[in-house]
Amino acid sequence: MIQLRNVQKHFQQGPIKAYVLNGVSVDVKDGEFVTIMGPSGAGKSTVLSILGMLDSLWTGEFFFVDQAVHKLTPKQRVELNKKYIGFVFQSFHLLEDLTVYENLDVPLSYRNLKKAEREKSVLETLDRFQIADKKGFYPSQLSGGQQQLVAVARAVIANPKLILADEPTGNLHSSQGQEIMELFKKLNQSGTTIVQVTHSESNAAYGHRIIQLRDGIVVS
């Protein structure tokens, strides 16, 4: 599904190039659950941003579902992102002025779906995540665990081929975090590819393998 080849990203600090990523090459197969680990500043979140096509200031090659991402226009990358990828962030990134129902409807609005289809999908997802009673609430009215549940629901509602998760349980209590990881495990077992960034050894244990980054280099 994913092939990164010799990906580099740097910032110019006077005459010196400060590398965030320095020749990163990574493969992720369809249906894998992969964890990226490493110390702060290792480049983990940068890799995730590149995989999610949120960052275009890099060099190298990136192939995703047989598309050469490094050759695509910004508009084409956005379309690929919307079609195939769901995101879960540590800070939830819910739209504060929209209700839970409306937040879940946003990813579906990018698809060519009739209103009745979108409504059916949102209601089914609310039931699946046991948050139907919260559909009229705004994010500020929810607990951290409830907000992250909504964030995961929003990420999966359009049945993405790939979920990218950046410290998905970082702001949650241990029991809430375990609940989110069990959800990821079930999603992966049903065929969704997952790439997560985490500092948590227990979260990493849910994946199939670990990619270790240090100073922008894959060390194992």
Tell me the structural class: alpha/beta
Low-pLDDT residue spans: none
- CATH architectural category: 3-Layer(aba) Sandwich
Number of strands: 10
Helix segment tally: 7
Nearest-integer average pLDDT: 93
Q: How would you spell out the order of helices and strands?
A: EEEHEEHEHHHEHEHEE
Largest sheet: 6 strands, mixed
CATH topology: Rossmann fold
- The shape, in one word, is globular
Please indicate the count of domains.
Answer: 1
Termini gap? 20 Å
Biggest sheet strand line-up: 6-7-8-3-9-10
> Can you tell me the CATH class?
Alpha Beta
Estimated helix fraction: 25-40%
Helices and strands, with pairings:
Layout: E1 2-13, E2 16-28, E3 33-37, H1 44-51, E4 59-64, E5 67-68, H2 74-84, E6 85-89, H3 100-109, H4 115-128, H5 144-156, E7 162-166, H6 174-189, E8 193-197, H7 201-204, E9 209-214, E10 217-218
Parallel strand pairs: 3-8, 3-9, 6-7, 7-8
Antiparallel strand pairs: 1-2, 1-4, 4-5, 9-10
Helix pairs in contact: 3-4, 3-5
Question: Can you characterise this structure?
Answer:
The protein has a single domain, classed as P-loop containing nucleotide triphosphate hydrolases (Rossmann fold), CATH 3.40.50. The chain contains 7 helices and 10 strands. The protein has helices at residues 44-51, 74-84, 100-109, 115-128, 144-156, 174-189, 201-204, and strands spanning 2-13, 16-28, 33-37, 59-64, 67-68, 85-89, 162-166, 193-197, 209-214, 217-218. The strands form 2 sheets. Strands 6-7-8-3-9-10 form a 6-stranded mixed β-sheet, sandwiched between helices. Helix 3 (100-109) packs parallel to helix 5 (144-156).
